[in-house]
Amino acid sequence: MANSKLFKGSLNTIILKLLEEKGKMYGYEITQKVKELTKGELKITEGALYPALHKLEAEGLLEAEVAKVDNRLRKYYKLTEKGEKETVNRLAELEEFIRSMHNLVNPDWSIQ
């Protein structure tokens, strides 16, 4: 993505939305799902993802559970009840922001 600052500002909302859809996911799975959904346009690095996950967990929006998979421990993240409510709010804010940006980038000049 050309402007990674725009992406970085949306990372928490992206994580919350994915967890809302999937129920629970582990870190690498999140990075791969974003890559898949954006056809490789957006790539989340571990350096960006894990601080975001830890911040969301500290805010009480996520909880983590550890499971043993193929003799390895894997940390899964899922939304808390507070996280479910916050996801709805953040998605509404993001959609409003996208609408506003669309209106600025593609103005209707007939409105005076």
TrEMBL record:
Domain Transcription regulator PadR N-terminal: 15-86
Molecular function terms from GO: DNA binding
Keyword DNA-binding: yes
Superkingdom of source: Bacteria
Keyword Zinc attached: no
Entry protein name: DNA-binding PadR family transcriptional regulator
Species whose genome carries this gene: Maribacter polysiphoniae
UniProt keyword terms in alphabetical order: DNA-binding
Entry-linked PANTHER family: PADR-FAMILY TRANSCRIPTIONAL REGULATOR, TRANSCRIPTIONAL REGULATOR RV3488
UniProt xrefs under InterPro entries: Metal_resp_DNA-bind_regulator, Tscrpt_reg_PadR_N, WH-like_DNA-bd_sf, WH_DNA-bd_sf
